[in-house]
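Quick board copy: two proteins, each given as sequence then C-alpha cells.
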Amino acid sequence: MKSIAIDVFLAAAVLITVISVLGMMRVRDPYQRMHYISPPASLSSSLIAAAIFLQRGFKPESFKALLVVFVLVGMNSVVTHAAARAFRIAETPDWHPAAGEEVPISADDEEVRPEQS
C-alpha cells in the first residue's frame, strides 16, 4: 500500500511538471511563462519530498528533501522577480524613471533624479 502511495505522489509530481512545461511552450510572453515555473518548484518538489518521507521515514535524507522544498519555495519568488526585472530592462534599455519616482537598487543607493531637459 505504501509503494502505491509513493508511486501516486511521484506520478503527480511528473504530471504537474509536464503540464507546466506544456503551458510554458503554449504562451508567447516571457512574463506569462514565469507563472508556469511555480508549480514544479512548489507542488512537485513537495510531492517528491512526501514520497521520500513515506519511503525512508524520519531519516536524515527525508529532512534534506524537506530543506530542498523550503529553499525552492522560498527562492522561487525571488528568482521570478529577478527574471521579470531582467525582461523589463531588456525590453526598455533606455528607460528613465518618471519625475519623483525612486528606483533604488540597494538600500544605500542615492535618490534617483530624472534628467532635466
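And the next:
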Amino acid sequence: MRLIPQCITESINLENDSNSDMTGVVHLYIVGNRVLFKFGRVAR
C-alpha cells in the first residue's frame, strides 16, 4: 500500500510546478490505477 501515497506525493509535487496539464494526466493515472486495482481484486 506504499505505492498509493507515493503517487499522491508525486502528484502534489507536480501541482507545485507550472505545468498544469501534466497534473491532470497524473491524477487520471492514479484514479485509473485505483480502478484497475479494485477490479483486479474483484476478479480474483
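Board note added afterward: The radius of gyration is 12 Å.
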